[in-house]
Specification:
about 190 residues; alpha+beta; nine-stranded antiparallel beta sheet; about 30% strand; globular
Length: about 190
Amino acid sequence: MDTRTWDALTESMKSAYVTGLNDGAVPRPVIMPLVRGQLVGLIWLRPVKTGHDALTGIAQLSNIAAAAGADEVVLAWESHDVATTCELPAVGPAPCLNMVHATKDGHTLHQFPYTEGTLADSPEGSASVQPCWQPAPAPQPGGELTPPVKAAVDFAFTPIELDHPSPFGVTVVLMEEDGYEVRLTEAFAF
């Protein structure tokens, strides 16, 4: 992945955190598969129940990446949110936006810790919650991933074998029916 694409995805996720915190929650985990350097789209986790359903839901983010034949994926999640929802211990700093860049050959974990700050009242009379980004640790090649994220990364490169003329298209439709939010780029829209 080129630096420009990585920087754009990182800034997009940080912007999503600004919006999410103002709405009272961090964004749901999201996977961004790429094929030959082209972004397939963004796929957000469906609504999940705490525990096993959350573990399964996060792992299944990999389905569209696998169906598209992705050669790279970026997955973003918030440490505390995923740990709480999956009933697992938090891995790494919390609160923290985590982004893993993965290929078939391995992954690199990037962490963007933050604190929640409140800005002065807006003209409408409400306070704005903003993430105050802290110094980011160095990228961690092979860094520890929480189990459902590791499963999503691993399964993203496992080909999906469907007896259907359009395995990618049917995977998108099935995931949308399950409640995943799927936004494909123009190059991959059908």
